[in-house]
Every structure is written in structure tokens, then in C-alpha cells.
Amino acid sequence: QQGVDGDASVHDRVLWALHISGMDDLLKFLASAQVEQQWALHVLEIISLMFRDQSPEELAALGQGTAGAEHGEDTRELESLRQREMAEKRSRALQRTSRHSRFGGSYVLQGVKSIGDRDVVFHKGLHNV
């Protein structure tokens, strides 16, 4: 009878044991399977007893509180990542020149003779030589 305020009641411990054993999955299967429709009222009674000490307002607040906080945190994280990506994109755009020179230039290849006695004159980029 001397329990701590945060201590789980017997009812909570039974529900936790049902969850650990996988019995809650079995109840969900029985409730949703068409061929097991004969057990529907029994499953409904078990579920109503599981939620016996809970108020609907508390259950709704618990479900939305965690999901809402996680959703808000995810949204803020995605927004910061998007802002960082946009800043990187802008910095890369500023580093590039806006005009591209298509003139590759002319180069004289010394030591390589053309048809005559002169050196070869090459009119494309050196990477293609």
C-alpha cells in the first residue's frame, strides 16, 4: 500500500505483461479477422477493460503530444537543412562565372613538325591533344 507516485499500478503491470507477451497483437488480429468474428464481443470486452482507468481526453492528449512534438522538431530540422542547402547553392553559384568562354585558344606544339618544317599549330584545348 506504500507506493511511490510514479509507481505502476497492478492494472498497468498487467497491461505491460500483455504487451511483452504479444497478446495485444493477438487481440488486434482477432478483432480484425473476418473468420474470427465469433470472438469480436470478447475482444471488445477485453479492450474496454484495458482502457478502464483511462479518460478519452488523456488518451487523445498522449497520442497527439508526442506526435506533435516530434512533427514540430522534424519540421524545424528539415527547414534548417533546406536553408543550409540553399545557402550552399547560392555560394556555389557566386563562385562560378556567369559567362563561359568557348574560345579554346591556339597552341604551338614545339618539337612536333607539321607537313613542312614549321611546328604544329593546334586550335583546341590541350586536354584533347
Question: Summarize this, please?
Answer:
The protein is 57% helix and 9% strand. It has helices at 10-21, 23-32, 40-50, 56-95; strands at 107-113, 119-122. InterPro entries: Timeless (IPR044998), Timeless_N (IPR006906).
Describe the protein.
By secondary structure, the protein is mostly helical. It has a domain at 8-54. It has helices spanning 10-21, 23-32, 40-50, 56-95, and strands spanning 107-113, 119-122. α2 packs across α3. 0% of the residues are buried. The model has no long low-confidence stretch (mean pLDDT 79). Keywords: Cell cycle, Nucleus.
Q: Compute the number of strand runs.
A: 2
Helix content: 55-70%
Q: Give the termini distance in whole angstroms.
A: 92 Å
Structural class: mainly alpha
Number of helices: 4
Order of helices and strands: HHHHEE
**Taking Cα atoms only, what radius of gyration do you get, to the nearest Å?**
37 Å
Q: What is the arithmetic mean of pLDDT?
A: 79
β-strand amount: 5-15%
Major beta sheet summary: 2 strands, antiparallel
